[in-house]
């Protein structure tokens, strides 16, 4: 993980005052710990305003400028009220109908080392039919994406790196290395403690047709667990981590059992990888990071594989 020198803080135009203040406060705490500068960014579009002046372009432009000016004043207040002394911060606003496109354009222009954004719960049907901004950024943001929730970090934050050493979820081996490196460097930067966590799910007994496995299904599951624990031990050694690094291997669907384990360990931050699936894969398989985000009580840092190329964000 490269040094965190610039952090882009994405604030939604309709975000509540409490949510925006928590977001900027946490981003300021992070910037203070790592010595980064902040840029607060609001990408906004108001459908009611655009519809009101549909046939009067000059009046619409004037109204848009007034809306943007209001957001600029909001950013100024957040900088003055929420950031610790000594943290350098600037602000920027942009009018764009497609919020994801506007944010990706900003990332391309500003070249941050990390993007920070607040998040909220999104029901499965809403995600499937309409999508949501956090899910779009999980798939397409080309730099580490920190999604924050309404919970403060502890004095010595517990950072949980979620890895898949046997690559059961079709994610590249290089992604595990990137996750561990991001988590290790981030943990050192914020003065935390690093854990590794891995969830595996054996075939249900009802779909096992091998007579030997059926007769000793519990033995099969235990053998599988040992294989995953050995793979985790190799990952710790190959990554140059301390041998006493806490490792948690849990059985079950990742999005279900990983949040439970994180809560048991009082985790403050989970580091996960994300690959951009095709439309059909996303429909039928979903996104592990998105599903897990909805069930986590703590923050989530999303990492992309080395060489990830996001969608073109041409002006």
Explain the overall architecture:
By secondary structure, the protein is of the alpha/beta class. It has two domains: 1-118, Rossmann fold (3-Layer(aba) Sandwich), CATH 3.40.50.620; 153-315, 3-Layer(aba) Sandwich (Rossmann fold), CATH 3.40.50. The longest helix is centred in the first third of the chain and has 26 residues, at 57-82. A ten-stranded mixed beta sheet has the order 3-2-1-4-5-10-9-6-7-8, sandwiched between helices. It has twelve helices and ten strands. Strand 1, helix 1 (17-34) and strand 2 (37-44) form a beta-alpha-beta unit. Helix 10 crosses helix 12. Helix content is 47%, strand content 19%.
Q: In summary, what is this structure?
A:
This protein has 315 residues and is of the alpha/beta class. The chain has 12 helices and 10 strands. Helix 1 packs across helix 3 and helix 10 packs across helix 12.
Structural class: alpha/beta
| CATH topology (level 3) name of the largest domain | Rossmann fold
| CATH classification, class level of the largest domain | Alpha Beta
Number of strands: 10
Counted up, domains total 2
Distance between the termini: 28 Å
Strand order in space, largest sheet: 3-2-1-4-5-10-9-6-7-8
Q: Segments where pLDDT lies below 50 for 5+ residues?
A: 125-131, 278-286
CATH architecture of the largest domain: 3-Layer(aba) Sandwich
The description of the largest β-sheet is: 10 strands, mixed
Helix content: 40-55%
> What percentage of the residues does DSSP assign to strands (E)?
15-25%
């Amino acid at each position: 993980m490269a040094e965190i020198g610039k952090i882009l803080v994405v604030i939604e135009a309709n975000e509540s005052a409490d949510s925006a203040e928590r977001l900027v406060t946490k981003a300021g705490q992070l910037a203070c710990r790592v010595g980064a500068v902040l840029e607060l960014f609001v990408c906004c579009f108001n459908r009611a305003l655009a519809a009101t002046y549909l046939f009067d372009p000059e009046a619409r432009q004037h109204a848009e400028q007034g809306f943007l000016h209001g957001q600029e004043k909001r950013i100024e207040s957040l900088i003055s009220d929420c950031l610790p002394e000594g943290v350098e911060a600037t602000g920027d606003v942009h009018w764009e109908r497609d919020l994801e496109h506007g944010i990706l354009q900003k990332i391309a222009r500003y070249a941050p080392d990390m993007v920070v954004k607040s998040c909220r719960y999104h029901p499965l049907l809403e995600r499937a039919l309409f999508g949501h901004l956090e899910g779009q950024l999980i798939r397409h943001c080309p730099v580490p994406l920190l999604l924050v929730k309404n919970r403060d970090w502890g004095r010595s934050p517990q950072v949980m790196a979620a890895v898949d050493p046997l690559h059961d979820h079709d994610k590249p081996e290089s992604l595990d290395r990137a996750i561990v490196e991001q988590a290790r460097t981030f943990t050192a930067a914020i003065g935390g403690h690093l854990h590794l966590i891995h969830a595996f799910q054996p075939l249900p007994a009802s779909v096992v047709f091998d007579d030997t496995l059926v007769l000793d299904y519990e033995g099969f599951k235990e053998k599988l667990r040992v294989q995953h624990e050995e793979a985790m031990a190799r990952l710790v050694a190959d990554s140059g981590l301390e041998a006493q690094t806490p490792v948690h291997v849990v059985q079950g669907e990742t999005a279900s059992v990983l949040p439970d384990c994180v809560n048991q360990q009082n985790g403050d931050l989970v580091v996960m990888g994300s690959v951009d699936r095709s439309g059909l894969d996303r429909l039928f398989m979903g996104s592990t990071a998105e599903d897990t985000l909805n069930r986590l009580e703590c923050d989530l840092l999303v990492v992309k594989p080395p060489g990830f190329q996001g969608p073109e964000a041409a002006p």
